[in-house]
């Protein structure tokens, strides 16, 4: 069979190392995942990059291209003349405008990535004129989406919003859903202190007036203040003294508060994840919540707001709902933080590993990227791919290999009231639980085998309730 011609994809980004924002983390991961596909050639166009960044990218088969600086022009509007791409991918308003310029200059296709619904932000911002400002942002974003060849929405709810916006101009079918999977950069980070040592709760934000409302920083400060055994580590402050003062207004003791700078937040992110015990994201609204996904990717327990797209994605994976809080009440958050704190570290890590595995399987980067490239190829070939507006991983799926659990299920099954589909879901969850248990426990003895069966009995009951309630 003849090899497919490689599709040349160019992504626009403000930076490669994610020093200032988390969106570049998404772009970098998408570039790396696309480059793993044999029929894709990936480059990333940047305002500037150094030799070390270029070398790091090349190890992942990604070529970094520095834009040509021209007075009076945006940085990325002037790519090298010899840049050859079939698709340019922009993200948000600023990079979207620059992607449109490259499309016009090079005659390539243009994909526009959207990750927020601006009108939601406007309703929750406290500053004057916020609603009208976000309405203008929505219109700018919408104009870009109408002009682009198709749209990639980060998460299913953002996709639904833009499908609604684009329905009148009959472009709603050109929205592709991509839910970020586990980030490869953060795997293998050592976690936390032993049980009984000082406990630290991690919170991210900039700390400006908007953050205290949108990101729920007031909720976080009040919740941690109610605990006698937890410290709050706030990372991302642009004005550290000012933010520390505001957080103290919520009765948190200075001795239990650490405030770190905005620059330190991104450059030492792995260290931040390694030295704390829990990350929280009590946002009243959130684009997706990539920082919480980064924490989960690092193996750090998380508690996230049900208002975030990440929280809603977590509800769709086995046992993910226990990490999602549907409340803006600091008392509720304090109770959930305490629940995580009092759980044995080994149990916390085992449970989290199950959730990470389930999340990575449901929101699989490779499968979603293959679907995305398939859509690109159809567009290049002029084909109409029915149903291409949704990636496969957004549809319910219970397929996948798992160990034969027949004999074990006969021991633990207490009811036959589940449908075949739900029973299969339970078996898949039990397969994951069994593998994790055997990784940490010796079951070769009679005593070990008995303990294993008791563990699976409890896991079966939890899994049955989980799939029964959706």
Summarize this entry quickly.
Helix content is 47%, strand content 14%. It is built from 19 helices and 13 strands.
Q: Which strand order spans the largest sheet, edge to edge or round the barrel?
A: 3-2-1-4-5-6-7
Mean pLDDT: 81
Q: Radius of gyration, Cα only, in angstroms? A: 23 Å
Structural domain count: 3
Q: CATH homologous superfamily of the largest domain?
A: Glycogen Phosphorylase B
CATH class of the largest domain: Alpha Beta
Spatial gap, N to C terminus: 43 Å
Strand content: 5-15%
Output the number of helix runs: 19
What is the architecture of the largest domain at the second tier of CATH?
A: 3-Layer(aba) Sandwich
The geometry reads as: globular
Structure notes:
The protein folds into three domains: 7-181 and 364-381, Glycogen Phosphorylase B (Rossmann fold, 3-Layer(aba) Sandwich); 185-361, Rossmann fold; 398-468, no CATH class. Helix content is 47%, strand content 14%. The protein contains 19 helices and 13 strands. The chain has helices at residues 23-35, 51-58, 92-106, 118-124, 130-147, 156-166, 209-214, 217-225, 240-248, 262-267, 269-275, 290-297, 309-314, 330-341, 345-362, 365-381, 406-412, 420-440, 446-468; strands at residues 7-12, 40-46, 62-66, 87-91, 109-114, 150-154, 175-178, 199-204, 230-237, 257-261, 278-281, 302-305, 324-325. Strand 6 (150-154), helix 6 and strand 7 (175-178) form a beta-alpha-beta unit.
